[in-house]
Specification:
Oligomer: single chain
CATH class: Alpha Beta
Number of helices: 2
Distance between the termini: 29 Å
Order of helices and strands: EEEEEHEEEH
Bound molecules: FE2/S2 (inorganic) cluster
CATH topology: Ribosomal Protein L9, domain 1
Helix content: under 10%
Largest sheet: 8 strands, mixed
Radius of gyration: 15 Å
């Protein structure tokens, strides 16, 4: 039940293993990270069903959150305006997340992006999520990473 996905287990007791979510979601934490639930493929590796990814640009364990947003004083709303929310034909399944060098998270697959209070902000099949902390259109990348000199593998 680790909410961040940092701790994962393999059951040895014969009980059913964790199942993938029926709906892929990305919850935007107020002044914090992106909490994603899906069958995750991160940087071409299967990575379980839960992950908490840095969006402040300060984590020393990118693309994952390590709590650095607290020390950095990162401030960003968890309640961005509602955008394109047309229904998706498929709501679950594999979600491919590729951190771009010195740039955003390139995300491919069905994803419902939700505010901290659970409102659906956007539904998408492909998007680029800001991980540098500088976008004026969070949670989406607007190209500000280049101006900000964001550096990350
Ligand atoms: S990664 Fe932040 S604006 Fe592109």
């Amino acid at each position: 039940m680790c909410p961040s996905g940092a701790i994962q287990i393999d059951r040895k007791d014969g009980n059913p293993a964790e199942q993938p979510p029926e709906v892929n979601t990305c919850h935007i934490r107020e002044s914090g990270p992106l909490a994603i639930r899906a069958t995750l493929i991160i940087d071409s590796k299967l990575d379980g069903y839960r992950a908490t990814l840095c969006r402040c640009g300060q984590s020393k364990n990118k693309p994952y959150c390590d709590g650095s947003h607290h020390d950095a004083g990162f401030a960003a709303t968890g309640e961005p305006e509602t955008g394109k929310t047309d229904a998706l034909q498929t709501r679950g399944g594999a979600l491919d997340i590729r951190p771009q060098r010195n740039g955003p998270l390139a995300v491919t697959g069905p994803l419902e992006i939700c505010s901290g209070t659970g409102r659906v902000v956007a539904r998408t099949q492909a998007t680029r999520l800001c991980r540098c902390g500088h976008s004026e259109n969070k949670p989406f990348c607007d190209g500000s990473h280049a101006r900000a000199g964001f550096v990350s593998e």
